[in-house]
Fold each of these.
Amino acid sequence: MRAILGLGVIVVLLLIAGLWLGLLRVDQTQQAELPKVSVSGGHAPKFDVQTAKVAVGTTQTTIEVPKVETETKAVNLPKVTVDKPGQ
């Protein structure tokens, strides 16, 4: 349940970011109409949604990469023990 809620929050944040950054434009093309009192008729609004086109690819290039070396060394680490009540 938390995963679904978290995914929903992420989707909403991505939509807000897309609108704010101009990657997504939403134009309402038809106004909504409430149904009549007899609960007949009515329709949902229609929208034209235009999104930014994103092209993803790779390119071959040469860059400088730092060389990292490691060494093994003996060190003293702190030790913590917890005695729970009743044990």
Amino acid sequence: MSIKDLYEELTDQITPSLLLLTEASSLDEGSLHSLLDNKAEASYESFYRAAANSRLNKEQSLSSIKDYVKPLSMRLSAKL
């Protein structure tokens, strides 16, 4: 059995219990900083603000893309 098969099997087994497991921790959504527990009914606005303020969206492209992905892409396209 491959790791992927094992992962999928275990995921299938635990999925029905995930909600119960998270509820059992008795943590409220506010302490988890969850956007899903938005009682103001402005969830899309909350998601947008969170994405806009995320450090991942501060630059047009991440430096890792410039450092790793672009050179790899150029090498692969040169082989074609």
